[in-house]
């Protein structure tokens, strides 16, 4: 907001190419290390893995929370982007269940990261979580509508119920492979009777 009589805010300059590359290197390193060691990995290790100095890390991500948010946002965006590719490659029912397979693995393997991002009393974090949840729900809803229109799933299945069941399987499974097996079992109940 501009103060009355004050100068207008300076326009944001686009990121320099090397700065953008450094941010991508840091995100890739953090993603890999968080997947292997969890979200509490030392930030010095993230910078080292990216081949950059700590100052560069803190210039892009001043706090651990900033880095966690960036990594999880990237994970959610990647999951949602995958739906379009699956829709292009598979019939509607198969596209839905291929995406649900990605979703169940996401929930089973990214739970600690999601909880680390959303822990704490800060309201913006819960708003981010709601936005991410909304984008995943919207993606699932589009896939489900196509599958329903093609007769590949029962008509009475609501997207909220579908995601609750799949998320429940992911959170109670012993690992991602177990979660995927539970999804395969659920698929039989979601499909219309022969």
Describe the fold and architecture.
The chain is an all-alpha fold and 194 residues long. It folds into two domains: 47 residues, Arc Repressor Mutant, subunit A, CATH 1.10.10; 126 residues, Tetracycline Repressor, domain 2 (Orthogonal Bundle), CATH 1.10.357. 75% of the residues lie in helices and 0% in strands. It has eight helices and no strands. The chain is elongated and about 60 Å long. The N and C termini lie far apart (60 Å). The model has no long low-confidence stretch (mean pLDDT 86).
Structural topology:
Elements: H1 17-37, H2 43-50, H3 54-60, H4 64-89, H5 92-118, H6 123-149, H7 159-172, H8 176-190
Which sequence of SSEs, written as H and E, runs from N to C? HHHHHHHH
Low-confidence stretches: none
How is the CATH topology of the largest domain named?
Tetracycline Repressor, domain 2
What's the CATH H-level homologous superfamily of the largest domain? Tetracycline Repressor, domain 2
What is the count of β-strands? 0
CATH class of the largest domain: Mainly Alpha
Strand content range:
under 5%
Helix tally equals 8
Helix coverage percent: over 70%
Q: Descriptors for this entry?
A:
194 residues, mainly alpha, Arc Repressor Mutant, subunit A, 8 helices
Structure summary:
By secondary structure, the protein is mainly α. It has helices at residues 17-37, 43-50, 54-60, 64-89, 92-118, 123-149, 159-172, 176-190.
């Amino acid at each position: 907001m501009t103060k009355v009589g004050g100068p207008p805010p300076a326009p944001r300059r686009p990121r320099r190419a090397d700065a953008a590359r450094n941010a991508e290197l840091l995100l890739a390193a953090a993603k890999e290390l968080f997947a292997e060691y969890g979200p509490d990995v030392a930030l010095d290790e993230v910078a080292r893995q990216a081949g950059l100095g700590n100052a560069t890390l803190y210039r892009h991500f001043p706090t651990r929370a900033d880095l966690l948010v960036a990594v999880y946002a990237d994970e959610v965006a990647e999951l949602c982007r995958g739906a379009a590719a699956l829709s292009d490659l598979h019939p509607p029912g198969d596209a839905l269940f291929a995406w649900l397979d990605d979703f169940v693995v996401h929930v089973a393997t990214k739970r600690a990261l999601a909880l680390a991002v959303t822990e704490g009393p800060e309201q913006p974090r819960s708003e981010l979580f709601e936005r991410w949840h909304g984008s995943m729900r919207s993606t699932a809803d589009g896939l489900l509508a196509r599958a329903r229109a093609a007769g590949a799933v029962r008509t009475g299945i609501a997207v909220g119920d579908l995601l609750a069941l799949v998320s429940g399987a992911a959170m109670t499974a012993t690992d991602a492979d177990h979660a995927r097996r539970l999804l395969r079992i659920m698929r039989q109940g979601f499909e219309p009777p022969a």
